[in-house]
Amino acid sequence: MQITASTDGQTVISTFEMTPGTCSDVLDALQDAYEKVIRFQPGFMGGAIHVNDAQTRVATYSRWRARTDFQAMLRTPEMRERNREIAKLCARFEPVLYDVAAVISPGAPGEAP
């Protein structure tokens, strides 16, 4: 999944806060949701799951064809139930929708700034 400034669609970054003791459970639940449900939803373009070193925060990044595709996925009975279970494991859980504002690529070796 490559990000470009002209990328159409909707970006969703969700953050989850938890204790280190429940981090593995949250990661397992999220990976299971992506593998069994989310990746098959209309408009899903790809995603990733990230965890911090302290295992107190997880962030997911996903791309959708349209905001309505993401919202429709959230309303499915399966995801409503899964999100209730994930929320029980977290102190806080927040999905936020974004549009790509800029893309910065690395400079080539030896290239002057």
UniProtKB/TrEMBL annotation:
The keyword Oxidoreductase applies. Residues 10-100 form the ABM domain. Keywords: Monooxygenase, Oxidoreductase. The keyword Oxidoreductase applies. It comes from the Bacteria. GO terms for molecular function: monooxygenase activity. It comes from Roseinatronobacter alkalisoli. InterPro entries: ABM_dom (IPR007138), Dimeric_a/b-barrel (IPR011008). This is Antibiotic biosynthesis monooxygenase. Gene3D superfamilies: 3.30.70.100.
